[in-house]
Amino acid sequence: MLRLSARALAVLFALAAFFVSARAQAVPTISFPTTNPTRSSPTNSSYPARDQAHLPNGISYQDCLDDVTMHFGVLAQNFVTGADTLQVWAGPSDCSDKAARISTTGTCQPVSTTYTLSASFTVDIKARDLVAASLSTPAPASSGGVTTPISSDASVCNKRTASAGTPMNVNFLVFAAGGGADAETNLAFNPSTQGLGVVVDTIGPAAPTGPSIGIGDTLLKIQWTPVSNASDTAGFTIFCDPPPGKAGTDSGLSLPDGTAPICIDASASSDSGSAIDGTSLSPLGPIADAADEGDADAADAADVAVTPNDASSAADSGTTGGTCGNSSDAGVCASNVIQPNINGSVIAGLGGGYYVCSTSTDKTTTQATVTGLTNGVQYTFGVAASDLIGNTGPVTVFPCATPQPISDFWDKYKDDGGGAGGGFCALEAVGMPVPTTMMGASMLVALIGVLRRRKR
Amino acid sequence: MMRAAMKRAAAVAIAGALLFVANAASAQERSGVLESRHRKYESPQNFAFEFRFSPYRPDIDGDPNLRGATPYRDIFGSMPRLLIAAELDWQALRIPHFGTIGPGVSVGYTSMAAPAPLAAPSTGFSAENTSIDIFPFYLVAVARADVVTKELHIPLVPYAKAGVGYALWRAYNDGGTSQSHGVPGKGHTYGTQAALGVALHLNVFDEYSARNMDNSLGVNNSYLFFEYYSSDFTSFGSTNALRVGNTSWAAGLAFEF
Q: In this structure, are residues A377 and A242 in contact, taking their beta carbons and an 8 Å threshold?
């Protein structure tokens, strides 16, 4: 009986050892595509995928604003059904390191719910959670090292102030069964290979510099200088308040509460995700020619005649190198929205682009003409660079200006008694290329003649 | 002795004959007989084409309706602008010992722009430009006296042109065609066209290249020309004409083919 019992015990031990060994060897593994996840938002189940040629897993301001969720299809193997779990953590450092998750120096925080492993399942990661994770700071000692997650409601989209994108490590971490409350202690394997890179970038390129504005008849012409090292610049967005055709109407729109000017500090970058020495950024100089009003010199024609009341105060509205613009300066321009260094994406998002007058996808553009304005109405203009991920950067505000009637050659000719005009001008009807066409036709005739000669 | 003398005489005669033939051939070449044979292979010449450049300052301020006001000069200053034009002539008739006569047509383009002043009571300039585009055309009879080159061997061809001209014009600013007192700033003006000029025959400077150009392109003659011309575009004295004509000099390159 005892011998049988001993034998039975031996068998039991052997079985136990076998299962323990098998369990130790059968490490759960997961796999998932690390690029081009499907995306959705509360209002769009097929939210457009990110451009795979640029920051394929990037999070833009609009993604955040639209509350986009990325969906990753995960395949799992060698897991203990109902016991092994998966969490996604994100932070600037490698979140597979426990110290990055639970310590007074770590900044990682969870960006997903806890999933029970199955053979195939979908992990959802919200853009706002990633934005919040990009803002997290090390937990205070009093917290026991557990970082308090930042609220990831819509307000988080406006909380980033660094123009540089933040590279994030998003780690899919599998936790073995039995971990209990301190799951990290039972981390089943090194999960560092199960991560993906995400760049949270909600602010566009650095603000253009050297703004100047010129007056025309129902139009204003603006000029600026792009920041030379804003390599990610893909175009520009022009803002105006009031928009063309809206003079005298109150939009009822204002900046979201808590919207603050973006400080481009010494570590700011060009929005490409790689750091650029902020000291090399061109500072926003005084707004050009604000004091030139009334100067009749034709040489100043491109940037004269700003209205006198506020240009000088606006001149100090934007500086870089660690100093944010004073948003109150813009108030003198009678705009509660277009203010120095405000995130252009915020303004662009107001009222479905209510304040967007014009956009350009040419990154070499340095000027724009906004037409359809009302003479005698004071306008506030702003320009911001946009990037490849779709963000609009901090706004540079132009001096306030008021369109005025002009007296061009034709006015002067008629005023002086000239009797011509109003006649037929076929060239206008068919467009400006006519002279080229006519000359080309003449040359063609000549060429035909030459060829005929040669054939003879 | 007699036979030797005859041999000597025959040798002298043969040598003399050879010398005569050689001399005759040389004389023939000098006299242009061979050259004239070569000319048989020159391509026909029926047209002339000119690239023309000219300083251009329309005579708008010469309109008597303006009573001495100078709106053009006030806006655009006195600096002439550049006219670029092309002319194609058909050398329909060749007159012996004179040259060619035929019709010619031309089209040109010039434009002027300046900052537009702000309307009173404001002073100074706006950021807008005020501009005029002018497209002068003309149809002329062209007489080229290439006898000077061909028969007098002086590489100059005097010529004259006379005919009618027509110009389309448009005044505009950054907002499009100008409007004043309800009248759009566009229209046309016609008038007369005349020119006197002289062309320097460039073939003489490199006849080999000139012949190659003829063989390869059919261009018989190339010229550098200079002319004085008058585009008297007043719609024959109309009071409603924008006087966009110009009296100036022009220069350019001409090719006969």
A: yes
**What is the per-residue pLDDT across A105-146, written as a single tens digit (0 to 9) for each?**
778 888 888 888 899 999 999 999 999 888 877 766 666 666
Q: Taking CB atoms and an 8 Å cutoff, what residues of chain B touch A405?
A: 118-119
Name every chain B residue with its beta carbon within 8 A of the beta carbon of A410.
Answer: 130, 171, 178-180, 185
Tokens 């497209």 correspond to what residue?
B135
d(CA A138, CA A149): 11
Structural contact between residues A401 and A254, judged by C-beta atoms closer than 8 angstroms: no
Instruction: Search chain A and give the residue with CA nearest B62.
Output: A418
Rounded-to-integer distance, Cα A416 and Cα B74, Å: 11
Which three-class secondary structure state does DSSP give residue A149? Answer: coil
Q: Is B124 on the interface with A (CB under 8 A)?
A: yes
Asked whether this complex has an ipTM greater than 0.90, the answer is no
Helices A434-455, B207-217: crossing angle, 10 deg rounding: 90
Q: CB–CB of A384/A368 below 8 Å?
A: no
The position carrying tokens 């105060």 is A313
Closest CA to B247 of B234, B233, B231: B231
Q: Do B189 and A420 touch (CB under 8 A)?
A: yes
Q: Between chains, do A414 and B183 touch, taking CB under 8 Å as contact?
A: yes
Residues 6+ apart with CB under 8 A from B178: A408, A409, A410, A411, B130, B171, B172, B184, B185
Probe site for chain B from A410, A424, A450, A452 (most B CB atoms < 10 A): A410
| Most confident option among A187-191, A208-212, A251-255, B10-14 | A208-212
